[in-house]
Amino acid sequence: MADEVGAPITQHLTRTEHDTDDIVVSLTNPDGTAAAVTGWTATLSIGPYTDSAPIATFTGTGLSGGLIPINMATFAVAVGSYKYDIRITDTVTGDTPSRVYFKGKFKVTGRIN
Question: Which of 2, 13, 78, 99 places its Cα 20 to 30 Å from the Cα of 19?
């Protein structure tokens, strides 16, 4: 079966509570070169289930090399199982379409103290 054109990539994520390392999105062009994402924004939304209001959002701004680090410095989501998506917006060209590039399950595990 062929992939659906434009469908978000499903990628499940697991993080440990209070893990503040950034999540970095890397986008490439069809020819394998880094996408020009400097100044674009990415928003990670986490919620209890699909189509729910997010309980937490985190944002990042695109850099050279096709990279968009999402700032997780304030990550404080409770241990549990959630859904997430990452919406990316081209805020540089004035044409600001946005779309969900990634989605999936988001699990937060407890720390060993």
Answer: 99
User: How is residue 27 written in tokens?
Assistant: 């986008």
Tokens of 18: 């209070």
Q: How far apart are CA 99 and CA 40, in angstroms?
A: 12
Q: What is the pLDDT of residues 52-69, one digit of tens each?
A: 899 999 999 999 999 999
What is the reported pTM?
0.88
Structure-token pair, residue 13: 């994520």
SS (H, E, C) 21-68: CCEEEECECCCCCECCCCCCEEEEEEECCCCCCCCEEEEEECCHHHEE
Q: What mean pLDDT is predicted for residues 97-113?
A: 90
* Residue 5 identity (one-letter amino acid): V
